[in-house]
Amino acid sequence: MPEGHTIHRLAADHDLVFGGRPLRVSSPQGKFSDGAALVDGLVLESAEAHGKHLFLGFGPSGWVHIHLGLFGKYGFGDAPAPPATETVRLRLINDEAYADLRGPTTCALITDGEKQAIHDRLGPDPLRARDTGEKAWQRISKSRTTIAALLMDQKVIAGVGNVYRAEVLFRHGIDPYRLGKDLTRAEWDAVWADLVELMREGVRLGRIDTVRPEHTPEAMGRPPRVDDHGGEVYVYRRAHQPCHICGGEIRTAGLAARNLFWCPGCQKP
Ligand SMILES: [Zn+2]
Predict the structure, then answer these.
(1) Domains of the chain in sequence order
(2) Which of 37, 128, 159, 216 shows the greatest Cβ crowding within 10 Å of its Cβ?
(3) Protein residues within 5 Å, CB atom, of ion ligand 1
(4) What is residue 111's predicted lDDT score, i.e. its pLDDT?
């Protein structure tokens, strides 16, 4: 599943490619035909992300709410668009470009009130300028759940996925099985600040890089990572390989329905 930086990048791409101009909106697959008809020909006024949710704003007509889920995919291209296949749930077109959305969990036209309800049930997002880690801390500091599970709970903090959770805990030497209530305020503030920085970098580069300058392949004289997720990381999908810092073996286990990766040498209980 894409992490929050991908969705924020998609919002920025929509603003850049389609923003401020009238747009043709359709649903070649038919599942979103009614919603598409209501915003077809209108101006895209804004595009916004919160965690893994994308919102395309069409003024008083409402918002197209998109959640990619596990299988959703977006493709952008230059106009003219090729004939749409039957798998395209949502197609956006202007004179210069088109975007096709396939296989999302959610693609629906919603009101301002419905959009607000989604914001209200999501935790703060490190990529939303107005959000702070405070609301997340209120929940984490009282929780008997592990910090690794809390970081994946979108009600606690929005947009963090499996890669950022593993990497940020490693970067701060925090055992993933530590309970929320056992984190210190200083640790949480440092984790939040780091997520803001790492995820902004993720939006900018379009991939997740989490190793510090002294641990890049060039600095360490090691071969670069080969993985279809791209990017240089400390622990994510590096099970049984040596830790870049202590040389110990990276471990893996299931937690909160996803595989967790950590270094027991660097992340002591
Ligand atoms: Zn280590």
Answers:
(1) 4-121 (3.20.190.10), 134-262 (1.10.8.50)
(2) 159
(3) 243, 245-246, 248, 263, 265-266
(4) 98
Cα 114 from chain centroid (whole Å): 21
Retrieve residue 205's tokens.
Answer: 């580069």
226 CB burial (10 A radius; 0-12, 13-18, 19+) = exposed
Query: Which residue shows structure tokens 């984190």?
Result: 183
Whether the model pTM is above 0.85: yes
**Residue 269: band (very low, low, confident or very high) from pLDDT cuts 50, 70, 90:** confident
Distance (Å) from CA 265 to ligand 1 centroid: 5
Are the C-beta atoms of 70 and 29 separated by less than 8 Å? no
**Active-site annotation holds for 167:** no
Alpha carbons 264 and 269: distance in angstroms, whole number:
8
Q: What is the pLDDT of residues 99-126, one digit of tens each?
A: 999 999 999 999 999 999 999 999 999 9
Residue 250: both structure tokens together: 């990276």
The average confidence (pLDDT) of the chain is 95
Ligand 1 centroid–CA 246 distance in Å is: 4
pLDDT of the residue at 230: 73
